[in-house]
Amino acid sequence: MGIKIITLVSLLLVCLLGGSCAPTQSFDKQLSSIVKPHHFSIAKWESRAILHQVGQWIWDGSEKIDDGVDDVIEYFSLVKRINTLESKIKAINNGSSYGDLASLELELNGLQQQIALAGVVERIIKNQIRDTLAEQGIFHPIDKYLRLKISFPPLTFKLEKPPYLLVVSPRDRIESMREITLQQSINMEEIVDIEAKVDELGVSSLVVEPGGIATYPSLVTSDASLRFTIDAATEEWLHQYLVVKPLGFLYLLDLAGVSRNYEIATMNETLASMVSKEIGSIVCERYYSGYENGAYQNQATGSEFDFHREMREIRKAVDEYLAEGEIRQAEEFMEQKRQYLVSMGYYIRKLNQAYFAFHGTYADSPTSISPIGIELKELRNQSASLKDFLDTVAAMTSREELRQSIK
After folding, report:
1. Given this model, what pLDDT does residue 147 score?
2. 112-150 burial by CB neighbour count: b if 16+ within 10 A, else e?
3. Does residue 193 or residue 19 have the better pLDDT?
4. CA–CA separation, 377 vs 225, rounded Å?
5. Strand order in the sheet with 157-159
6. Where are the domains of the chain?
């Protein structure tokens, strides 16, 4: 999720060219002045993290991944309990619930001191994903020319809170025109202030908390489920894999603002999402079939309300409003629907053009109405293997090629 930057060279390219995606130089300067105090430097973070990774690459492969399954399960069981305690404490503090606050805080502090397995868990899951990719014949993006059965770039990630992401969209259409990383330490008051100032520039903005970001090593949120973590770590590596392919390189140009192409962005994000979920299913079935991780069980139960269908209908209506130039009506409609979703148990802090621009690049998500997701699923069903599907789409340079490839 978020900015998909793969190698250090690619990262620097995006950083250097990022300003060109603003509609005017004046806009870019104003936006820069707003985010500068809160900007997260990926280059600085990578320069510190990469030194630690060198040692891991040298000693890579020492973990016996089958023996580490219990450690992984223990870690994510602790994460789940910590999340539950934090939610209870928050509810008591804001007056929406009652309970023994001191007891809960004491248990939380004890669990937080126990959760010291992150480094071991990262290496175990990394090896499980890497071996599963290898079984599918997915090693590195140029294996057509180099018949080396090695994983490249080396799959690695850190269980650490990713930086926030400021997403900027025009108000008259849904399209991500700028994505900027912000420090993990900013609070809600600062987030609201940033969004308000950016919105005054005549655009739609939203600060989101991505589950992962393809820095190197990738950053994957440390408070998610086991299944989500496996999928996210795989997806971020796939973005690194794709960057030297035609599709991934065009997406890099889109991110850098050099050549905007929302369809390419959607194809790239959806491809990585689909492949990562398929790999994630294999990993979980093989190593964690007895562990209930609840990766995607976040829908309300005991109700006929269909969140996915509702979000698709909202998106269609918003697109119709915007196509008619009725921007204010579209924004009022989204706010009304946001309040309705909250009443149905789905808390969305802010529903606007930037929200759909960020989530809509995943054509297999409920917030997207793009037919690209259906087309990619058709092509996957026709493909001889997961690798064949991945490399076929990775070689594409347009949506038209995708349509033509479907038999």
Report:
1. 65
2. eeebebeeebbbbbbbbbbebbeebebbbbebeeeeeee
3. 193
4. 25
5. 157-159, 218-220, 212-213
6. 8-301
Q: Name the amino acid, one letter, at 387.
A: K
pTM: 0.81
Q: Are 73 and 288 in contact (CB under 8 A)?
A: yes
Q: Per the structure block, which two tokens stand in for 111?
A: 């669990």
Give me 289's structure tokens: 């079939």
Question: Tell me: the pLDDT tens digits for 390-406?
Answer: 999 999 999 999 999 98
Two structure tokens written together for 23: 């509609």
Q: How many CB atoms lie within 10 A of CB 385?
A: 11
